[in-house]
Amino acid sequence: MKYRGVLLLLLIGLMLSSCVHKIPKGEHFFQAMGEVGEVVVTVDTTNLERLPLKVEEGTFTQLLSRVNRLSVALYDPLEAEVDPEEELDISGYAYYGAVEGNIPAFLTNSALLWDSDWQKVEEGRLRYYHNDYLGLDVYAVERGLLLFASENYSDAYHKSYAQRKVKIEHSLAQRMATSLFGIYLASPKALIEVGLEIPKTVIPHIASVTFVVEEGREENYALGGIIVMQSERLANSLSILVKSSYISDKRRKKEPLGDLTNLFILEGDAFYINGLPLNDEQLVSFQALFNKLLPF
Question: Where are the domains of the chain?
Fold first, then answer.
């Protein structure tokens, strides 16, 4: 395919240098993502074999193996109305994001410059490379950090890097960063299906929702979550609803309830989900979601 050449050049550059991106002190890069209407996804790529996800073998897999983290923010460029009764459909969303890790800026940008499929674009002092076939803009803005966008690179550059403002609160970002796979939505109009029964009636009252996939016991995977409601009363109602739904589902399937002590925790306006085992169907859902997010 057209982009194989530039990815191979990127790989060569990555092999020739060891340059690590230094994020702002106390911050994670993806914390500047997360505007209302965006779906933020961050993936720890340091050990691909640990991920409960299927990534096709090839150049992209090799590229991921050279970086530490892939973060993507997806959004609807048309800002269409969202039906809370339906699962959030991200298939037509635009995106922007970054890969962080062992990425030498000079060699990476030189690889893009040398490849005829990429055109250099300059907007004042802003510079990046565009690929018509992929519909993608990219640029290594500094050592260890490669930004990309499917459209409006300038806007993505300024809000996530040059004029970044933290949108994802530190404790939520830390939970995402220490997991294998994290998802964040602020004031969602609808939710991504993760196999958790959350009543549609509570969605308009959610301030933010964070879901993470973590390594569980006995080499399986578990779902974690932090749902921040608009008030403590609403969080308490959500806690009752989710717990009741979980217990009813277990009884219907004649499965043991297990220890519920720390599985669901209510703290003020936040409802925590800890170590909820993922079944095979849920893992397939996460694999499908991840495959929609691959930017190359």
Answer: 4-293
Please report the pLDDT score of residue 7 as a whole number.
Answer: 47
Query: What's the CA gap between 65 and 112, in Å, rounded?
Result: 20
Which residue from 182, 48, 181, 44 is spatially nearest to 100, judged by alpha carbons? 44
pTM to 2 decimal places: 0.84
Strand extents, DSSP E, 58-144? 67-75, 94-101, 119-123, 126-131, 136-142
Q: Is 124 left (phi over 0), alpha (psi -120 to 50) or beta?
A: left
Task: Please indicate whether residue 191 or residue 229 has the higher confidence score (pLDDT).
Answer: 229
In angstroms, the CA 148 to CA 157 distance is 9
The answer to whether the beta carbons of residues 40 and 13 sit under 8 Å apart is no
Q: DSSP secondary-structure letter at 2?
A: T
pLDDT at 24 (0 to 100): 66
pLDDT (tens digit, 9 = 90+) per residue, 123-157? 999 999 999 988 899 999 998 899 999 999 999 99
DSSP-derived pairing of the beta strands 264-267 and 270-277 = antiparallel
Confidence of residue 212 (pLDDT cuts 50, 70, 90): very high
The answer for residues whose C-beta is within 8 angstroms of residue 11's C-beta and 6 or more apart is: 59, 62, 63, 66
Distance from C-alpha of 107 to C-alpha of 14, rounded to nearest angstrom: 8
Q: Is the pLDDT of residue 296 over 70?
A: no
CA dihedral 58, 60, 66, 67 (to 10 degrees): -150
Q: Residue 259: CB partners within 8 Å, gap ≥ 6? A: none
User: HSE of 104 in the Cβ direction (CA atoms, 13 Å)?
Assistant: 14
